[in-house]
Design brief:
Blueprint (H helix, E strand, L loop, with lengths): L1 E5 L3 H13 L3 E6 L2 H11 L3 E5 L9 H12 L5 E5 L4 H7 L7 E5 L6 H5 L12 E5 L8 E5 L2
Parallel strand pairs: 1-2, 1-3, 3-4, 4-5
Antiparallel strand pairs: 6-7
Helix pairs in contact: 2-3
């Protein structure tokens, strides 16, 4: 699987590269700032994008904005957003209209690396208002996290 990673924290970014490559995935590109994300996604057209929400220069929603823009350019591009924060507005916008191939995962909810790399069917909530469901189009094993109200 070809992956583009967008994460401003160097330790987490390089850790993701090592984890994914050691699991047999190809990391096609990495981005450390918001303005680098969309060009990397469009140039490499990965099988999945793993994106941080808040990235430099503004540390607001640069990663999410890039994900939304990339999905407009490449409909159905699978995106897994990693966030330090529960941001209902961000997640609701990304998951609007029943979007598939989309995930929103809290970084501190990843308790086991093997579960992150190969999630199993039937996993339960990652947070109070998130329910994980499964679809073959997103992450290894097909993880899609959908908004529930």
């Amino acid at each position: 699987m070809r992956v583009v990673i967008a994460e401003d924290n160097a330790l987490l970014r390089e850790g993701l590269v090592l984890l994914l490559t050691s699991a047999g995935h190809e990391v096609a590109a990495v981005a450390a700032t918001g303005p680098e994300v969309l060009p990397a996604l469009l140039a490499h057209r990965p099988d999945v994008a793993v994106l941080d929400v808040r990235m430099p220069p503004g540390f607001r929603d640069e990663g999410l904005r890039a994900a939304l823009a990339a999905r407009r350019e490449v409909p159905g591009l699978p995106v897994l957003v990693l966030s330090q924060y529960v941001e209902e507005t961000y997640a609701a916008e990304l998951l609007a209209d029943g979007a598939s191939g989309v995930g929103y995962l809290l970084k501190d909810r990843i308790g086991r690396v093997d579960a992150f790399l190969t999630p199993s069917s039937g996993s339960r909530p990652a947070g109070r208002r998130w329910t994980r469901t499964w679809s073959p189009s997103c992450w290894p094993g097909g993880a899609t996290i959908r908004w529930t109200r």
